[in-house]
Every structure is written in structure tokens, then in C-alpha cells.
Amino acid sequence: MTLRVAIVGAGPAGIYAADLLIKHDKVSDVSIDLFERLPAPYGLVRYGVAPDHPRIKGIVNSLREILDSGKIRFFGNVNYGTDVTLNDLKQHYHAVIFATGAMRDAELDISGIDLPGSFGAADFVSWYDGHPDVPRDWPLHAKEVAIIGNGNVALDVARMLTKRPKDLYPTEVPDNVFHALESSQVTDVHVFGRRSPLHVKFTPLELRELGDLEDVDIVLYDEDFGFNDAWREAAGANKQLAVMERIFEDWRRREVGKASRRLHFRFFAQPLEVLGSFAVEGLRWERTVLTASGQPQPSGEVRRLQVQALYRAVGYFGSPLAELPFDSQTGVVPNISGAVLDDNGFQEPGVFVTGWIKRGPVGLIGHTKADAIETVNTLLEQRDAWWNPPESDLRAITRLLTKRGCKFTDLSGWQRLDFKETKLGQIRGKERLKVVSREEMLSLAIPR
Ligand SMILES: Cc1cc2nc3c(=O)[nH]c(=O)nc-3n(C[C@H](O)[C@H](O)[C@H](O)COP(=O)(O)OP(=O)(O)OC[C@H]3O[C@@H](n4cnc5c(N)ncnc54)[C@H](O)[C@@H]3O)c2cc1C
Fold first, then answer.
1. Phi/psi of residue 375, nearest 5 degrees
2. Taking the model in full, what pTM does it have?
3. Taking the CA of residue 440 as centre, how many other CA atoms within 13 Å lie in the half-sphere pointing to its CB?
4. Which residues, 6+ apart, have CB-to-CB distance to 233 below 8 Å?
5. pLDDT surpassing 90 at residue 234
6. d(CA 103, CA 318)
7. Which atom of ligand 1 is nearest to the CA of 42?
8. Which atom of ligand 1 is nearest to the CA of 358?
9. Statement: residue 235 has pLDDT above 90
């Protein structure tokens, strides 16, 4: 029997799941259809990882090899929930794996957060990575900017705002983004974290990189430093933190004052309110003190900082999927080892999840491999839970999409688009020139 599996979402989690199914020794014959709402695969590797991180972007090379193995059909520009439904999948496949990730910003519940000039980091990331579904323009007239969050996404945003545009040019940064960044007025970016410099969620490589930015001073405040054993213990001291402590200490010895842009780190800082009547004018925040277990507590000392823009980088959050259960507290589809559970805790036959929609938006690309291993093993162990699809013709799903007027792309369409982007990039001395608009992507991918 040929095992027919639909995978929804062509990010790393979906592609790794496909690879495992193809190579699994319990599977003699498998046919995989990969549905993706965008005309291009690779999810956040293409639309999340920053353009000036070519080493990480390079992961697409191994993902491409999997797609090119000849064993996966790619259906780009197909949105689960509108172009294709759960019932459609039941008619054509034995099982479905949802790998739809997380795209939107987690909320930050403070007064003024909805003022114009207050942005979610995820929206900014989508903009600078050329996501087809976000507006082409981004307001960059703020001189002073606050970023709330102490994870790597906060560092990405800080770096993209302060880095000299000419240093971004050779990367795959889209043209509209490059020109907008060239006209940016920013001089000071302040990154806020509620706890100590040893409680950050940054990784050393990403932190160190900021110190190498041309014409950017790193500004640290003495009141935030004085590393001590209590902090170290509360932060769960490890090698990574020791490296970061050295990075901060090195920066504190540097002379500042000559660069045209400054990147400030403010620790022990709890945001209270975004100030402004019609647009962001400032941030009211309170200094914190840490409990013995490292929890931030209010100190009663409230301060204000003048800023004209604010970015919240407090995490991503998953979105519900049509006809599937969803945990609105955690932003994931409830599951046990990848098998989806209904509202009463019973397993939904034939429905599995992997990646960020399975366990929440934390962790690196590599972690989605472990997710995929678990989910694929669960799927293969649960043969009794597979669907019994009445439609056996592999071409039936293509006919259905065509009948619905869905303009889907296939793997050769994506390869054409990929080739075009690389070629355009070569001509301009860039790694790639991303095609941004969905219409243009489709017109390149689908020959008339
Ligand atoms: C800003 C940012 C920077 C990052 N930088 C790094 C880094 O430098 N290094 C690193 O290792 N990790 C990094 N990560 C983490 C990494 O991107 C994730 O671990 C990984 O992408 C999660 O994979 P996923 O496949 O679960 O989700 P995604 O990559 O989000 O893929 C999900 C896919 O599903 C598609 N989809 C969603 N809904 C539907 C639907 N209804 N129908 C069809 N398709 C749908 C989406 O379009 C998307 O292509 C970063 C993450 C972010 C947010």
C-alpha cells in the first residue's frame, strides 16, 4: 500500500517531517503532498531569519535537497482553510501533518500599546524579510526607539534598525527595505529587559555580533552591572552566560561617543505604559529588583524615556486552524507526541502536528527535526487512526484545486522563481534579490 500523507506548511518542520517519512524503515512506499500558503517554501527561514545571517539562511540548501528528492509534490499558494479543507484532505490522504508554525506577535498588555508608532516585532521582521502579505512601506522617522524583550528577535530588530544600510546591501534584503532603511532617522535604540544581564535569552553569537556593527556605540549603564553570585545562581549559571558576561564586560570598557547611532541596553526595567496622545511619545518604566529566585519585583522607582517608536519583541504566537482544536492560552494545537487531541482530550484520527504549532514558538530550526521525529513515529505507530480515503487517484487533488480556481504553484514553479531571484541578485552583486509581491512571485512561478 502507498501511504499518502498531506503536510500543511513548508517551513523546516514540515519539510523535515516529509524527509523522515520518505526515509523511514517502517514505510515501504509513501507519497507526500506539501501544501504551503505562500508561493515559496521554507517558512521562517525565508521570512524570519534576518537577511544578514546568510549562514542560517544557508539551511535552505539542505531543505532544498529534500524538496528536490523527487518524492514530494509541492503545492504553493494554497491556503489550508480556504483553498483546501479538512474534509478534502480526508478524501485524498491517510493522514495530515500540520506544520503551520507561528507568525504573529504575542500580546503585551500595557496601556498605550496600540498607539500609532507601537509595532510588533513579527510585523517588522515580515517587512524587512519581504513577506508578500505585509505592506511595502515601514515608517522609520523615529529618532529614538524602544524595543521590549531580551531574546534574539529583539537583537535582530535592534541590529536591523542600527546597522548601516550599505552593510546590508550585499545580503538578500529587498530593494524597498534597503531604501527605507537608508532614509531612517534613528539615532538611539534602547533594548529593555526586566531582569539582569545574566537573565537574557540572547545567544552569545547574536549578542557579540552587535559589538561589531560599524558606527554604532553600545551603551551600558553602571547601575545595571555588578555581576554577583546570587544573579549567577538565579540565572542557572552555565557556559553561555559566562561568555555573555565577558561580552558585556568587554563592552563596558569601550569608549563611547563617536558613533552616529547608539544601542542602549536597559536591564531591571519593567515597561509600564506607552506614552502619547496620538502617537508614541515615550515609555514609562519601573526599575525592578530581583527575588532570590530571579523574579523581577517593582522597586517603586518609575522613570520615563522619550521615544517616537516602540517594538515589542515578547515572543511569537500561533494562530488557530480551521476545524482544528486550539489552545488559546498557549497558541498551540493540543496534542500528545504529535497526535492531535480534541476538546475532550480524545485523539482526532488522522490529524498530527509538528514544529512551532505543536509545541509553541521557541527554539531553533534544528529543534524542529526532533519534533518531526516524534510526530512521524507517532503517525506510523497509529495505523488504526489513519483515514480511509475514497479517492485513490493522485491527480484528483490537482483537479480539485484547479476546479476551485486556486492558482497553485508546483516545485518547478518555485525552482523558476528561486533561479530568477538568484540571477537578479548575481547581476546586482547580492546574494539574492527577493521578489516581494505575491502577484509577481506567481507570474514568475506559473508560466502563461
Ligand atoms: C525573527 C526570527 C528569527 C529567527 N532566527 C533564527 C536563527 O537565526 N536560527 C535558528 O535556528 N532559528 C531561528 N528562528 C527560529 C526558526 O525560524 C523556527 O524554529 C522554525 O522556523 C519553526 O519552524 P516551523 O516549520 O514550525 O514554522 P515556520 O517556519 O513558521 O513554517 C510554517 C509554514 O506554514 C505555512 N502556513 C501557515 N499557515 C498555513 C495555512 N493555513 N495553509 C498553508 N500553509 C500555512 C507558513 O506560511 C510557513 O511557511 C527564528 C525565528 C524568528 C521568528
1. -65, -45
2. 0.96
3. 12
4. none
5. no
6. 6
7. 49
8. 26
9. no
Nearest CA to ligand 1 atom 17: 44
What are the CA-CA distances from residue 344 to residues 198, 334, 362 (Å)? 42, 11, 26
Across residues 79-108, what is the average pLDDT?
Answer: 97
Cα-based distances in Å from 446 to 10, 11, 433: 19, 21, 19
What nine digits make up the cell of 351? 490529524
Best of 44, 74, 126, 368 for a ligand 1 pocket test (most atoms within 8 Å of beta carbon): 44
pLDDT, average across residues 183-192: 98
| Residues near ligand 1 (Cβ within 6 A) | 8-14, 35-38, 43-45, 48-49, 53, 56, 79-81, 99-101, 125, 153, 156, 316, 355-356, 363-365, 368
Distance in angstroms (rounded) separating the CA atoms of residues 121 and 206 = 17
Residues 216/162, Cβ–Cβ less than 8 Å: yes
The conformational region for residue 80 under phi > 0 = left, psi -120 to 50 = alpha, else beta, is: beta
Average pLDDT, the chain: 96
For residue 363, give the ligand 1 atom closest to its CA: 19
Q: Which atom of ligand 1 is nearest to the CA of 50?
A: 3
Q: Ligand 1 center to residue 10 CA distance, Å?
A: 9
